[in-house]
Design brief:
about 210 residues; mainly beta; six-stranded mixed β-sheet; seven-stranded mixed β-sheet; single chain; about 10% helix; about 35% strand; globular
């Protein structure tokens, strides 16, 4: 079972029986008032300030900040090199996407992905049951590009991130653009997602998390 909660921008808390992970901790200066988090593992997709606010984390968690294979607290993590733009990082730099194998699920957090996936990336990411994907445009995927990425994967749950909210990311596109591209007419935001492998359906479901 996995529990996934969103704190804004690319910052998510992913809990399993064995560990609690925080992705891309977002600073309060971005408008998201995140309470101090006690977690086992922190991942950084890249070194930009909106993704490395370790000050919102208490204790001494293990930190993962780049590509590779890791085993921590009975969680398998695979970091895959991707890019923040469609020019192999020439404009905005590199990005690391992470696959988290937690109990009987695989969660993919795409960080600040800014390009379509190549065949090797599709092969690596194709095992994901849940994909967390930027959709708000700017230096990351916009709504149409995000749907193209979703369509190359076999994930059963799609969680959008990095879109305009009342708290922050005012320069991004609104969530409605992505929902329209996905053909979703109505979705009720959830405080958090709690899911088991047995809950997964046959076709992708868009899950919107509230702040």
């Amino acid at each position: 079972m996995a529990e996934i909660k969103w704190f804004g921008h690319a910052c998510f808390r992913i809990r399993s029986r064995d560990a609690t992970i925080l992705t891309d901790p977002v600073p309060r200066s971005f408008g998201y008032k995140v309470e101090k988090q006690k977690v086992d593992i922190v991942t950084f997709s890249h070194a930009h300030p909106g993704h490395t606010a370790i000050e919102i984390v208490s204790g001494e968690p293990k930190v993962v900040d780049g590509p590779g294979e890791y085993e921590m607290n009975d969680v398998f993590i695979t970091g895959v090199r991707t890019y923040h733009d469609d020019q192999r990082g020439a404009e905005h730099g590199r990005n690391t996407a992470y696959l988290f194998e937690i109990e009987d699920l695989v969660v993919l957090h795409l960080g600040d992905l800014g390009h379509q996936l190549d065949e090797s990336e599709i092969d690596k990411f194709g095992t994901a049951d849940i994909v967390i994907i930027p959709v708000g445009g700017g230096p990351v995927l916009d709504a149409k590009q995000a749907v193209e990425v979703v369509n190359t994967l076999d994930a059963k749950i799609v969680i959008p991130m990095q879109y305009r909210t009342p708290n922050g990311d005012a320069q991004r596109d609104p969530l409605e653009k992505f929902l329209a591209e996905m053909g979703v007419t109505e979705v009720a935001p959830r405080d958090k997602l709690v899911v088991r492998a047995s809950d997964l359906g046959e076709s992708p479901e868009v899950v919107v998390l509230s702040l």
